[in-house]
Amino acid sequence: MFSHSYNARLVWRERTGQSIRTFSETRWWSKWEVLRQVSEYFGDVEPFLRENDEVSPANRRRLLEIFDDPQSCQDLRLELAAVIDAGVHFVNATYYLEGDGLLIFSCYERLSAVAQAVAVDHYPNTEAVAREIANGNVAVYNQLMAQAKACIWPELNFYQRKFNVQFRDTVKSARFCCPVQVQGLRPTAASLEELRNFPFLNN
What we know:
Blueprint: H1 6-16, H2 29-40, H3 42-51, H4 57-68, H5 70-97, H6 104-120, H7 124-134, H8 138-173, H9 181-185
């Protein structure tokens, strides 16, 4: 909606005091930044749509269909919170790893931290939304949390498989090339065999 209408962006800024974030297809994490902002200002979204019928009519109509259906609106809030909670680890790691410097030496630690954060299963925003919706009903709360986690688990599981199977050994081996890290790693002849993960190295 905002990407197609300058007027929508202007009216949103007047209402919230914040310019809506934009995203680029080549910077995937920028879409997460937009979703986080929508989540933070979720209470302003429906009034904004109701009060501005001239703004992006087709998108407005589709969005109002969601808000007019209590179940769809609840699902939207819950799933948006889950995406924010799960995505923050990936976005923070991406910001770090797109920087300057010899990042390959610290890449393993960053990616491993993401894997550990995923495994911890901590969703503060999702838990807050689920508590509010459940209104003290523990069974409903547990059901909502299960629903939220189910919508993001395929992606998190995909990352865990990629990290633990496809590129874990390669980024882990790169630490042996770092003059600082190698002192703490204290490699042996056996552990240096991991350098064979780099195809450009010969015997």
